[in-house]
Amino acid sequence: MRLKRFARYGMVGIINTLIHIAVFTALSSRQYPAAAANLIAFAAASAFGFAANARWTFGTKASFKHYACFVLLMGFAASASGLASDALAMPPQVAAVGFSAISLIYATCARVTLFLPKQKENHENIAYRPGVE
User: Fold this and answer.
1) Which pLDDT band, with edges at 50, 70 and 90, does 114 fall under?
2) Residue percentage of the chain with pLDDT more than 70
3) Terminal CA-CA length for the chain
4) Which is nearest to 116 in space by CA: 61, 38, 46?
5) Is 67 helix (H, G, I), strand (E, B) or coil?
6) Spatial CB neighbours of 54, under 8 Å, sequence gap ≥ 6
7) 88 DSSP assignment
8) Are 23 and 48 in contact (CB under 8 A)?
9) Highest mean pLDDT among 41-45, 68-72, 127-131
């Protein structure tokens, strides 16, 4: 099951990347500044990626609260990898690879942090244990 989930996460990531590239390229060809084009492309790609991972990869409902958390975390990771790459005078590809690694690590935590369905407390199945409250 974990391998299937990881494969789905990877497929969503590939499509997510293609969406980002397509939107960025389309906006850049219309003379949008690179920063604006990248921000809009990130927004479009992350919306797809979050919804697809919530539904298809993890089988849960997407919520705005969780989406906002996802975007903040991924935006922070993207910025951090870019800043680290710049500070170390590395090529931009290093930032992309670093962000991809961070994203894969995040995937292992995402099930628990964002995509875990809420468990309803079932009082009928709680066994009575004297002396335990």
Assistant:
1) low
2) 74
3) 37
4) 61
5) helix
6) 60, 61, 62, 66, 114, 115
7) T
8) no
9) 41-45
Residue pointed to by tokens 């244990």 = 129
Are 48 and 18 spatial neighbours (Cβ–Cβ below 8 Å)? no
Has residue 2 got a pLDDT over 50?
yes
Is residue 76 exposed (0-12), middle (13-18) or buried (19+ Cβ within 10 Å)?
A: exposed
Residues 89-102 have pLDDT tens digits of 877 667 667 777 77
Contact 45, 20 (CB under 8 A): yes
Per-residue pLDDT at 132 exceeds 60: no
Structure tokens at 100: 């991809």
Residue for token digits 């990771």?
77
DSSP H or E stretch at residue 93: helix 92-113
